[in-house]
Amino acid sequence: MAALLPIRHQPPLPLDRLILRAPPGAEALEMDVVVVGAGPAGLACAIELARLGQQARDAGRDAPDLNIAVLEKAGSLGEHSLSGAVVNPRAFQELFPDMPPARLPFRQPVAGEAVYFLTERRAQRIPTPPTMHNTGFYTASICEIVRWLGERAEERGIHLFPGFPVASLLVAGEAVRGVRTTPSGLDRNGEPGAAYQEPTDVTAKITVLAEGTRGMLTQAWREWRTILSPNPQIFALGVKEVWEVKHPLDRVIHTLGWPLPADAFGGSFMYPLGPGQVALGLVVGLDYHDASLDVHQLLQRMKLHPLFRPHLEGGQVLEWGAKTIPEGGFYALPERRAGEGLLLVGDAAGFVDVPSLKGIHYAMQSGIFAARAAFSALEAGMTGAEALAAYDRMVDRSFIAADLRRTRNMRLAFKDGLYLGGVKAGLMTLTGGRVPGGRIEMPEDAAAPRVVRAAAPFTPDGTLTFSKVDAVFKSGNATRDTIPTHLVVGNDVSPELADFYSHVCPAGVYERVGGELKVNAPNCVDCKATDVLGPRWTPREGGSGPKYRLM
Ligand SMILES: Cc1cc2nc3c(=O)[nH]c(=O)nc-3n(C[C@H](O)[C@H](O)[C@H](O)COP(=O)(O)OP(=O)(O)OC[C@H]3O[C@@H](n4cnc5c(N)ncnc54)[C@H](O)[C@@H]3O)c2cc1C
Ligand code: SF4
């Protein structure tokens, strides 16, 4: 059987575009701190920074009134945010200690939970693994969380700039001195059109990278400064839908097994979002072996299973979306997350615990720690790597590092397949991660060989199941189709590789037409799956991409 090795065909990171030694333009905005990405990590960081300044001034200290900017590529806050989500509220409680839970931006408390092992026709309930207990947590829409955090940030005088994707880090020597945004209004050939707007430079004493999963600037900074980790970061792709349903779902559901092949890692979730809505998604590790595996299509098939179908029938899909998740855990954390004028927070740093599928509270808590380190550094007038290393120490002593350490090999054990992985993960749970000992080595996802197989045919019915074109429509994506492509494809794309990319991309960006690869770049929903396995994603004009409201 023919095989593909995705890494052989992957273009290098365009480092010359991502790291700029050019001095900032004369009209650069001057900030104390610039945060890249208005997700939970970036917004928590900005809010805590402003709060610390206020607290110090209230205490009579001569603390600076900081100029803090948050730059976000989505046209409006939350439009590029996608999660499950069941939220552990502890970081919210730390950031808003006086706020009662009822005022936090959650849909409902978790009232019950069940885990099932699926075969094609059956669902066998299994005991809930200890890592998957969600008592005391809440279901939520991350779009709503982000919009709410944005309001809290604005109340504190933070400058929010949605629609401003950051294209490059501005550097001098070894230090990061700020960022440059993408231009907008370019035509298909990359030439300025009638609505052209130049890039904006924002200089800052500290730049916080909170750009989420598979961040381009994070990759560039790590490559430039040679910031290693014991294992490379690995990723999963999550495809998700929000449905309006006739009957309320009374518990949080997770499943293992079908529709995934036994040699792929992943599972599904269905969460209640109040009485009339559910969130439903499938998450699959991108180290799967079958080149024809298609996560979007698997989710469509999954909805026809007797466990899900009765919940969805008579309802309607409200929104569709996709996003990757960093899954490497403890051993994929960068050896340092602080540098000269730079801090790395949230998913950008890899703070996700896969066995519990949690990242939001780690993202927020890391943002809070970054703010504390940044504030002390600014007060002391020293923003070098040594001063900012206080952030790394805070993370390393916190529940973030402890939780990730406890489950350090669990996801990695599944590289040997579901059954052996399940046994090993069980042992790890029983022993707090000590057995089997050592670090399980993991190659990067693109280095996992793929077996080329014919894809199983599937015809969506347009009611319960949808094509990728319908799905992109439901993501709200209305990107101008005259912008230059933001995707960098390698040379010599064989018909088999074109097929592989078309299956990887949940949004139908890549198509095999005859023997050639066709790229429908405006369809891209920024999930970053192909950046992991093939063509590179780069930041494009602000406001492009999905317009999620409920994810
Ligand atoms: C399918 C799925 C299910 C999940 N389920 C759960 C769950 O149930 N519970 C849980 O706790 N966690 C869950 N997670 C993980 C959780 O969503 C993440 O850990 C969390 O969102 C990370 O927050 P962040 O702020 O680091 O990144 P993000 O939320 O990704 O935010 C990053 C922001 O940066 C912006 N950005 C990126 N690049 C640029 C750029 N160049 N310029 C400007 N802006 C940029 C993005 O548009 C985005 O708004 C899930 C994730 C997925 C994908
Ligand atoms: S092209 Fe865009 S939508 Fe498709 S996989 Fe890549 S990042 Fe995701």
Secondary structure blueprint with pairings:
Elements: E1 3-4, H1 15-18, E2 19-20, E3 29-36, H2 40-58, E4 68-72, E5 86-87, H3 90-95, E6 108-109, E7 113-118, E8 123-126, E9 138-139, H4 142-155, E10 159-162, E11 166-172, E12 175-181, E13 184-186, E14 192-197, E15 201-209, H5 216-225, E16 235-244, E17 252-257, E18 266-272, E19 277-285, H6 295-302, H7 309-312, E20 316-326, E21 338-339, E22 342-344, H8 360-380, H9 385-396, H10 399-406, H11 410-413, H12 418-430, E23 450-451, H13 468-474, E24 487-488, H14 495-504, E25 510-513, E26 516-519, H15 529-533, E27 536-537
Parallel strand pairs: 2-11, 3-4, 3-15, 4-10, 7-17, 15-22
Antiparallel strand pairs: 1-23, 5-9, 6-9, 7-8, 11-12, 12-15, 13-14, 16-19, 16-20, 17-18, 18-19, 21-22, 24-27, 25-26
Bound molecules: flavin-adenine dinucleotide and iron/sulfur cluster (SF4).
Explain what this protein looks like in three dimensions.
This protein has 551 residues and is of the alpha+beta class. 26% of the residues lie in helices and 24% in strands. β21 and β22 (342-344) form a beta hairpin. It is globular. Bound molecules: flavin-adenine dinucleotide and iron/sulfur cluster (SF4). Residues 36-42, 71-74, 80-87, 142, 165-166, 210-213, 215, 238, 240, 281, 283, 323, 325, 346-348, 352, 357-361, 363, 539 line the site of flavin-adenine dinucleotide.
